[in-house]
DNA sequence: CAAGGCTCCTGATAGC
DNA sequence: TGCTATCAGGAGCCTT
């Protein structure tokens, strides 16, 4: 399940292998993968053809490739199971290959790019996709203007986030997953940060003091940076790793997926609770539920 | 308008 | 063995 660290690993891989290359043609193999491109697959392919890819950007779990001299960007979201792979044109198609982008690799294109490779969007569960959008004056695809800056963005405003928590009548995990308050946090890193901060997922946001918010944000950043550090080992190959679930950071998880296993802090068996059509993992001793009002 | 619930999708796995 | 139920969950959209 790609969250901010996994998407950042992908962004770095794209920066190395795709940035600066010119699109030769695009093949859309599944309509759902471009459903956010309302004009359709043909339009998507047509508009990309002949365009040069700029440096890939990221905000939260979204990443985008600006198309040179067009004021537009290819926006990508990996959803649950999406992968952006740089593969040899000769490699056999993946079972869930949805979109293929080929490049011209002519003189003047990215010298670091590996010729003979193509970009593939592979997505088993089709929650993710690619689309093309106009950029806002900030260089952001217009459809993600509502996505907040992420906690690794130097311009993320800690104080504004704290004030938003104070104003809200929601609970902390909902707030962490609310991409218009803070982006890039998904179910896994939310549980990890809450475990580190020793906070129950249903603590009302209005009860947060400034130090408590600061501490939680610190843990969010720490766990994401730790994941990023480990994920950083795998992106110097032609494979742009997005496989966060089976990969490198799983063994470092302290909360997510650890039902009935001992809390790494106090030894109490960890619990799983159904929550918002998914699960929350927590330590019943370190992360006490808030008193009901 | 804010908050919370529903829904899209496929494959792995559990249970009968 | 083969069927069905359950679970995984990001985010747009809908309801309250």
Characterization of this structure:
With 293 residues, the chain is of the alpha+beta class. It has 2 domains: 4-143, N-terminal domain of MutM-like DNA repair proteins (Alpha-Beta Barrel); 158-245 and 252-282, Helicase, Ruva Protein, domain 3, CATH 1.10.8.50. It is built from 6 helices and 10 strands. The chain has helices at 4-17, 41-48, 158-167, 172-177, 187-197, 210-231; strands at residues 23-28, 57-59, 62-67, 72-77, 82-88, 97-103, 117-123, 129-134, 271-275, 278-282. The strands form 3 sheets. Strands 1-6-7-5 form a 4-stranded antiparallel beta sheet. It has a 4-stranded antiparallel beta sheet with strand order 2-3-4-8, with helices on one face. Strand 9 and strand 10 form a beta hairpin. The longest helix is centred in the last third of the chain and has 22 residues, at 210-231. The radius of gyration is 20 Å and the shape is elongated. It starts with a helix and ends in an 11-residue tail after the last strand. The model is unreliable at 242-246 (pLDDT under 50). The structure holds a DNA duplex (16 and 16 nucleotides).
Domain module count: 2
Give the ordered list of helices and strands. Answer: HEHEEEEEEEHHHHEE
Based on Cα principal axes, name the global outline: elongated
CATH level-3 fold name of the largest domain: N-terminal domain of MutM-like DNA repair proteins
User: What is the rounded distance between the termini?
Assistant: 35 Å
Let me know the number of strands: 10
Q: Tell me, what is the CATH class of the largest domain?
A: Alpha Beta
State the strand order across the main sheet: 1-6-7-5
Averaged pLDDT? 90
- Low-confidence runs: 242-246
The CATH architecture of the largest domain can be given as Alpha-Beta Barrel
User: What's the gyration radius in Å?
Assistant: 20 Å
Please count the helical segments. 6
Helix content: 10-25%
Determine the strand fraction and express it as a percent band.
Answer: 15-25%
State the secondary-structure class. Answer: alpha+beta
CATH superfamily of the largest domain: MutM-like, N-terminal
Query: Main sheet?
Result: 4 strands, antiparallel
